[in-house]
Design brief:
The chain is built from six helices and 13 strands.
Amino acid sequence: MRNRFKDPIFMVVIAVLVSVVWLAVKPTAQGAAFQAARLQGTSNPDLNGVWQTMNTANWNLEAHAASAGLSTEAGPVGAVPAAPILALGAIGSIPGGIGVVEGGEIPYQPAALAQRQENRENVLTRDPEVKCFMPGVPRATYLPHPFQIVQSTNKILIVYEFASASRTVHLDEVGPPPVDSWMGHSVGRWEGDTLVVEVTDQVEGTWFDRSGNFHSDELTVTERYTPISPDHLQYEATIEDPNVFTRAWTISMPLYRHKEPNAQLTEFKCVEFVEELVYGHLRKEQLVSHWEGDLGELGGRLILDVTRTLPGQ
């Protein structure tokens, strides 16, 4: 039988087929070969759509191992869940992540690093996400909720599902904001196909994640949104804060477009979900005070009692 692998014509055909397949699957350089669809009437990319991240950045921007939960205490061989989250079991645990910080570590000043550690030990009472405060930028981007970009020629509205937060990116000339705010002041420009947004005037009350990473009111965030495929944006945010960090640092991650039929944001007005947590101590009669759960033969019966007092008592 003839050996076709020695046939030069056959080998040329195989080489051509391999080349075609390789070119079909070869990733393009970000923002280089890919040409995004244009916003009607402009030469700018069309960023309209519902987008979301797929990572664990909201748990911790830096690389981290899976752990027992947001609040833990020392056990005989390692940390165990603290009482407030004990009944959640695996649902209350923290998934591991490879991190999104370029270079691996956030460059804290020594005093600020100590503050972060204190934050980590008090996440349940200090993280603004727990109380449904506005998430700020860049955290709003990688919360485990989608957001929508609504783009026009001189304004871009970004609406976030979490807490119904929103902000306007001004592509035209605007004056400075009268006061600092939770979502800051966003001014944008186009650099080729990349939308560059400078965010200033944010209050210091927001965090970057659930791991205590924080900033001061001197924070400046420079965002970059670059289309890399019809359904992906590359997102970068460079963070500067001379009161907290030794230098500027950058996070980066892809954003994914929702493709399901009728993709849209659903309502998540979480303020009403935390009213009892934040204001329950003001009631004449406490509502949430006692919980019992049967964890089965291996877990026994779990009983939790809650006592609340007014501030200062």
